[in-house]
Design goal:
- The chain has helices spanning 37-55, 72-85, 98-106, 120-128, 177-188, 192-195, 205-213, 224-227, 230-233, 263-271, 275-283, and strands spanning 5-10, 15-20, 24-25, 31-32, 61-68, 89-96, 113-116, 131-141, 143-146, 168-171, 199-202, 219-223, 238-240, 249-256.
- The chain is an alpha/beta fold.
- The chain folds into three domains: 5-55, no CATH class; 61-141 and 248-283, 3-Layer(aba) Sandwich (D-Maltodextrin-Binding Protein, domain 2), CATH 3.40.190; 143-240, 3-Layer(aba) Sandwich (D-Maltodextrin-Binding Protein, domain 2).
- Strand 5, helix 2 and strand 6 (89-96) form a beta-alpha-beta unit.
- Helix 2 packs antiparallel against helix 11 (275-283).
- The longest helix is centred in the first third of the chain and has 19 residues, at 37-55.
- The protein is elongated.
- The relative contact order is 0.16.
Length: 294
């Protein structure tokens, strides 16, 4: 027998709804019984997606990694190693100064992991609830004098007072840890007041290296991890600034609150303690202790 249907106006909506004979129309005009076809399809779609998700724990996840720019060349090597070891996962890298990346995370930027050149920045994010413990130290950095114009390996910090150096580049100390350590080293060496009028500031340590490379500054203070890169090393030597002239560059990472449930972010955290990751960092001039020896 063919099912009987009636066309019923739904009160207050100005719409027509087709009601089958096994549906019940209440006094208020609503329909009890079978769901409309679109509703059934939506529920089926949701259940299908849920089933696929539960059945496929290896689905590709991307970790958005906000990293201090001294890690630029190190991550060129770390990223493919990580993605080979963890084939379901991918890294998306956002480089900048540690202070500015921290500000973005505080303002809700959707980063999963934060790699800072200063351990105090991820600690502050954990304290404010923007990141989750633990805060893990992954390396210690060093600062160097570098120039693309002169042989910086023959220089010392005292050399910067010479008139031939009219522009000296450092990273902005207010938000770049490498800039803060550069200022400390210049102050410790007693030349800060003499060189201060000559200073030009990079947004981060990578930008500082670009200023020197383009000879917008004759010389500057950058990360050892950048000066050891083949491209920069071919353009000029460097002078390793004594570690006792500044506070240690203890560098650390933390998973953010945004990334705490991201399997790829958790995989990054585990990966950084592996011999492969530590070996890459050491090859790029980082040390695993604060002894000041890369």
């Amino acid at each position: 027998m063919t099912a009987r249907a009636a066309v019923h106006a739904v009160p207050g909506h100005g719409l027509l709804h087709c009601v089958h004979n096994d549906d019940e129309i209440r006094n208020d005009g609503a329909v009890r019984g079978k769901l409309p076809v679109p509703g059934v399809l939506i529920i089926k779609l949701v259940l299908t997606v849920l089933a696929l998700t539960l059945a496929s724990p290896g689905l590709t996840e991307t970790a958005r990694v906000a990293a201090a720019s001294d890690l630029r060349f190190a991550f060129d090597e770390l990223q493919p190693i990580f993605e080979k070891i963890h084939p379901p996962h991918r890294l998306e890298l956002i480089m900048g100064s540690s202070g500015k990346l921290m500000q973005q995370i505080e303002n809700g930027a959707p980063f999963d992991v934060f790699f800072s050149a200063d351990v105090n920045f991820p600690r502050a994010l954990v304290a404010s609830g923007k990141a989750v413990a633990p805060v893990t130290t992954y390396a210690f950095g060093r600062i160097v004098l570098w120039s693309a114009k002169v042989d910086a390996s023959r220089l010392t910090l005292a050399s910067l007072t010479q008139p031939e150096f009219r522009r000296i580049a450092i990273a902005a100390p207010e938000h770049a840890p490498y800039g803060a350590r550069a200022r400390e080293a210049l102050q410790h060496s007693g030349v800060w007041h003499q060189v201060q009028p000559k200073l030009v500031f990079g947004e981060n340590i990578s930008h500082t290296a670009q200023l020197i490379d383009s000879q917008a500054a004759e010389v500057g203070i950058i990360a050892l991890s950048l000066a050891m890169n083949d491209g920069l090393k071919a353009k000029g030597g460097y002078f390793l600034i004594p570690a006792n002239t500044h506070q240690p560059l203890e560098q650390a990472f933390a998973v953010t609150r945004y990334g705490r449930n991201n399997p790829a972010a958790q995989a990054v955290a585990r990966f950084m303690s592996t011999p492969q990751a530590r070996g890459v960092l050491q090859r790029h001039g980082f040390s695993m202790s604060d002894e000041g020896k890369p």
